[in-house]
Amino acid sequence: MKAKLGRCSLLQALSSKGFRLTSQRRALIETIQEADDHLDAASLLRAARQRKADINRATVYRTLELLKRLGLINELDLMHLEGEKHYYEARARRDHLHLACYKCGAIMEYTTRTLERLKDEIARHNQFQVGVIRLEVGGWCKHCRPRSGTIRGSSMAPGCGLH
Amino acid sequence: MKAKLGRCSLLQALSSKGFRLTSQRRALIETIQEADDHLDAASLLRAARQRKADINRATVYRTLELLKRLGLINELDLMHLEGEKHYYEARARRDHLHLACYKCGAIMEYTTRTLERLKDEIARHNQFQVGVIRLEVGGWCKHCRPRSGTIRGSSMAPGCGLH
DNA sequence: GTATTTGCAAAAGCTTTGCTGCAAC
DNA sequence: GTTGCAGCAAAGCTTTTGCAAATAC
Predict the structure, then answer these.
(1) What's A37's DSSP letter?
(2) Partner-chain contact A121 B112, CB within 8 Å
(3) What element of type H or E holds B87?
């Protein structure tokens, strides 16, 4: 179960910026905020329809675009483990990174101060104002590691054909 | 001009693993290695055709898939600044991150020890064998920052409609 | 000579768009 | 009553696939 704390209140944020709160948007936002997993557009539509039956695919995409533009949700690729869909999550108070296992497909989240330090460093060294930071790691989780023991420091994918 | 040093020799790596060196693959690989920018599949095809006229789109995608699987190139999304295409770069000796400016579209690379430290930390704390790490940052470059001075530590995108 | 790889063309998958009518404020 | 937003259906774009012919080794 995904933690529900530390989330922005999307509904509140939307209306305070003058956007209409349609019943469709409510259903979509509630679905996103209460989701256990990262949802792609199709899954979100399916889940949101249990709250409000008549939601259209176009509305899903338009709402996601809006929330993304407002910085209220994050868009993830999750290393394209399965196709080119995008995944979404309500933006948490702290940035975190996503680990994707090439073998079993598990997605893990990891929060660390180092990421915040890195963000500050990026801003300072490049005079760059950071809006969104997306850090995704592909590899092998502890259950799927090719062999136990060594974790290589190298950046090269170990061997071929392993994905 | 992008630095040409610190690259893997893709041709050599391919043949040493027993893959055939077709003229199409040669043309594609040479194009990738000498590219000044990050190339998407269509641009790569266009550029490679100047070396070898008859290359097909399917071959491009199949070759990219192969090189990616072998860990010889990185696949980037560059924060989806323009559509959903993917971008590719020959894998460098050191990992680096990509900064994408929402306003002018500039892509900058930044290499830092902190990224390597972060990678080690990820591996240690999650017992995760890192294959590929992809870190992309969306924001505003020094020429496009909304206002000078403050660089906010917050992760929220500043204001709405700015992308 | 044989197995791998290519070209071709069609399809698949996800996302976007134009337009009409509905609904939030 | 306005104006923004949703629904519908069609199109758009990138990427993938099946199969026969070509090519690297």
Answers:
(1) S
(2) yes
(3) strand B87-90
Average pLDDT, chain A: 87
Cβ distance A64 to A37 under 8 Å?
Answer: no
A56 token code pair: 């259209």
Protein contacts on strand D: list nucleotides below 7 Å from a Cβ.
4-9, 13-18, 23-25
Residue in A with minimal Cα distance to B118 = A114
- Say how far apart CA A83 and CA A80 lie, in whole Å: 6
pLDDT tens sequence across B32-46: 999 999 999 999 999
Which of B71, B95, B108 comes nearest A157 by C-beta? B71
Q: Which residues contact B11 (CB under 8 A, 6 or more apart)?
A: B21, B26, B29, B30
Q: How many helices (H) and strands (E) does chain A have?
A: 5, 6
Q: What SS3 state is found at B30?
A: helix
What's the CA gap between B34 and A19, in Å, rounded?
A: 48
Report pTM: 0.87
DSSP B27: H
- Chain B environment of A113 (Cβ under 8 Å): none
By percentage, how much of chain B surpasses pLDDT 90?
Answer: 77
Number of neighbours of residue A133 by Cβ within 10 angstroms? 22
